Amino acid sequence: MPADLLPLSIKRDGVAFRVEWSDGLVATVPFQKLRDHCPCAGCNDERAKPADPFRVLSAREVAAGLPVPVAMKPVGHYAYQITWNDGHDAGIFTLDALRHLGQPVAPSKDTHAPA
User: Fold this and answer.
1) Which of 83, 91, 100, 102 satisfies CB 3.0 to 4.6 Å to 40 for a cystine?
2) Which among 24, 43, 50, 46 is positioned nearest to 105, based on CA atoms?
3) Cβ neighbours, 10 Å, residue 58
4) Between the CA of residue 24 and those of 2, 38, 57, 92, what are the distances in Å?
5) Residue 110 clears pLDDT 80, i.e. is over it
6) 100 within 8 A of 31, measured Cβ to Cβ
7) CA 99 to mean position of chain CA atoms
8) Which helix (H) or strand (E) holds 107?
9) What are phi and psi of 25, to 5 degrees?
10) Considering the domain 31-103, what is its CATH architecture?
11) pLDDT (tens digit, 9 = 90+) per residue, 68-87?
């Protein structure tokens, strides 16, 4: 990712972040997708294991429900650390990861534009 490509704005938009990038791209990054792609060592280890069909959710996981970020702080000039409603906060999401996980928002059609 080019060094001058930066997020100009990151806002909560329902169940996703809406990110406006310095190159004009506007994308949404769903919270569930971010949580599923947490880059921390613990989450990477869990994803590497075969799925356990008998895994029981902890009381904390059940109480948390769907993943919702409760805090997001910059890490240097290259990443953000997200704290989730289930208490997990070990993942540091690089700007490159945020860009990669984003889904471009289709430009809205201006209904008032001349024909």
Assistant:
1) 91
2) 24
3) 10
4) 14, 26, 41, 24
5) no
6) no
7) 9
8) none
9) -70, 135
10) 2-Layer Sandwich (3.30)
11) 999 999 999 999 999 999 89
The pTM (predicted TM-score) of the whole model is 0.82
**How far apart, in whole angstroms, are the C-alpha atoms of residue 39 and residue 41?**
7
Dist. CA 3–CA 108, nearest whole Å: 28
* Whether the Cβ atoms of residue 29 and residue 16 lie closer than 8 Å to each other: yes
Residue that the structure tokens 């880059």 belong to: 39
Among 72, 95, 97, 74, residue whose Cα is nearest residue 83: 72
What's the one-letter identity of residue 90? A
104 touches 26 (CB < 8 A): yes
Q: How far is CA 50 from the centre of its chain?
A: 24
User: What amino acid is encoded at 104 in this protein?
Assistant: P
Residue 84, token pair as written in the block: 């989730």
